[in-house]
Amino acid sequence: MTRILALARRYPIVAVTVLVGLVVVGMLLSEGATAAQWLASGFALIIALQTSIRMIRDLLRGRWGVDVLAVMAIVSTVAVGEYLAALVIVLMLSGGKALEDHAAGRARRELTALLERAPQVAHLMQADTDDISDVPVTQVRPGDRLLVRPSEVVPVDGELLSPEASLDESSLTGESLPVTRRTGDALLSGSLNGGIAIVIRATARVEDSQYQRIVALVEEASQSRAPLVRLADRYAVPFTIVSLLIAGIAWRVSGDPVRFAEVLVLATPCPLLIAAPVAFMGGMSRAAKDGIIVKGGGTLEQLAQIRTVAFDKTGTLTYGQPALDAVNPFPPMTANELLALAASAEQYSSHVLAASVLAAAETRGLSLQKAATAEEYATHGVLA
Asked: Is 148:167 a contact under the CB 8 Å cutoff?
């Protein structure tokens, strides 16, 4: 109940529309058709007036939208007495904008989470004394020495001065395993430091660093409009003219003004008004939540045409730790005998597949054959 009240306060027009619809249905059931018509018609015209005012403001800014058809459909349905149809159009308009606002809010929350992960403070090491002072990350300049404590995010792009560092770069590269860097290696901002403190030399300002560029890309993507969404506005004027022409012809041929209203109701592009923006913003929001950066709505639209995708599987689709699932020998050899022989051959290999074979043999408690000499090992070799 609390959640419903919160949604009603956030989207009052949708809540009032639903309430008016319930009241109208109740009046119809109690034989109050006239009062129901006045209530529904008056409410629909008020919403049409509000939408018209917003539409006029858009026209003054040089933007013609497809909402004009919805307004005309509301007015025409009220004029011919189809007040229930007018309420349905109002519900589609207000509900669509509420869904779009909700999807945009989720996208903004994901972007806010991304921004909050960006470090705001850097530990600056003084050149002469090595004393450490905390400064805003915006004050870091190339050449400054910075201390990055364990489990902290690297604030700016830099060069490693410490002998070695283990970093989690998954938020940047998608690689799930920690990466080892050594003295002189480049470090990317946004990388998560491991269990030891390290010293780096800044090579870029925060606004020029990798993580900040990713944040800017996500912010730009959340504000972009997909070609399909822009298409609605691009053809709004001719679509409106053609719809009015067809509606006028239907009225003239039939002699019934209801036909005019029916054509406008059908022409109201509610699926395009509601579905496209919500789908694109929802997709970018979910992608950002899962650590996938999408350049814009156009990129998501192009994904619908993809039939084949190639991945660098290790660390992207897998963890780089394959496991032996089954052993299928030819009789009379048993599975354990074959596995023991394979593990014996692989015991000196560092390959990931060799490790999976050895792990399976160890799990089954199999004893491995040992090479008597280095020459014998070199003669037999390894399988992987």
From this structure: no
Do residues 125 and 108 both lie within one domain? no
Asked if residue 306 is part of any domain, the answer here is: no
How far apart CA 84 and CA 75 sit, in angstroms, is 12
Instruction: Report which of residues 356 and 61 the model is more confident about.
Output: 356
Do 49 and 151 have their domain in common? no
Name residue, tokens 């053609």: 242
Q: Is residue 309 part of a domain?
A: no
Is residue 318 domain-resident? Answer: no
What H or E segment, with its residue span, contains residue 261? helix 257-267
How far apart, in whole angstroms, are the C-alpha atoms of residue 62 and residue 26? Answer: 43
312 is catalytic: yes
Of 189, 214, 239, the domain-final residue: 214
CB-CB neighbours of 304 under 10 Å: 7
Distance CA 144, CA 57 (A): 51
pLDDT band for position 225 (cuts 50, 70, 90): low
The whole-number pLDDT of residue 111 equals: 59
Q: Are 89 and 70 in contact (CB under 8 A)?
A: yes
For residue 371, the 8-state DSSP code is P
Q: Are residues 160 and 87 in the same domain?
A: no
Q: Which residues contact 168 (CB under 8 A, 6 or more apart)?
A: 178, 179, 191, 192, 194
Tokens of residue 52, six digits: 């018209």
Statement to judge: residues 235 and 297 lie in one domain: yes
pLDDT interval class at 373 (50, 70, 90): very low
Q: Which of 128, 131, 290, 312 is catalytic?
A: 312
Structural domain boundaries enclosing 28: 2-113+220-301
Q: pLDDT class for 354, splitting at 50, 70, 90?
A: confident
Same domain, 296 and 374: no
Same domain, 284 and 240: yes
Q: Indicate the SS3 state at residue 351.
A: coil
Q: What is the pLDDT of residue 270?
A: 58
Domain closes at, from 301, 322, 353: 301
**pLDDT band with cut points at 50, 70 and 90 for residue 372:** very low
- Cα separation of the two ends of the chain: 62
Give pLDDT, residue 302.
79
Same domain? 19 vs 143: no
